[in-house]
Amino acid sequence: MFTGIVKEIGEVEGVEVTEAGARLRVRAALAATVSQGDSVSVSGACLTVAAAADGTFESDVMNQTLSLTTLGALGAGARVNLEPALRAGEPLGGHLVQGHVDGTGRVSGVGEDGLARRMRVAMPPDLGRYVVEHGSIAVDGVSLTVAALAEDGFETSLIPETLARTTLGDLAEGSPVNVEVDLIARYAERLMQGFKREGTVNDG
Questions:
Q1: Which phi and psi (to 5°) does residue 146 adopt?
Q2: 104-136: per-residue pLDDT in tens?
Q3: For residue 37, which of 56, 102, 113, 159 sits 20 to 30 Å off, Cα-Cα?
């Protein structure tokens, strides 16, 4: 489990792609604090540390993850948002993020808005029902607040701190991003489906 509060921007040193998946190597100070088997959010995708040494860590990325996220397009030199797994007793500064990317979106607009930067993200239509105005959403592993709903997605405002401490400041119109909708919305939908099924049985 994560919070969507990025701890560090890492740099991809290499990606080895095979038919079975990919091996991702990232250079980051965080590598000195993780061990084999630990979980790390890499631009929103939860990966397991396979090895860590000499200021880098490596993770195996299965084909399903490559197909659902932007990780398959990463190359040497790419910058990625990093967050280690939440530990018991640590503050929940953002919102509950699983690191299970729901799909990829695309930046459809960027504009300055006072001290903030307004960003619009288009995303798959089937995810729209989980997004509400002023609710939470994770973009490339960053916990954000939905500022407004758009016909094809949503808008959010990025404060200077977010622009400086994450890769979101690098995004431009057309940039692909990983999107994870609010976990609570998914569970609420599942719970309501159960109530509807039970109601149907009882009414019969």
A1: -75, 115
A2: 999 999 999 999 999 999 999 999 999 999 999
A3: 102
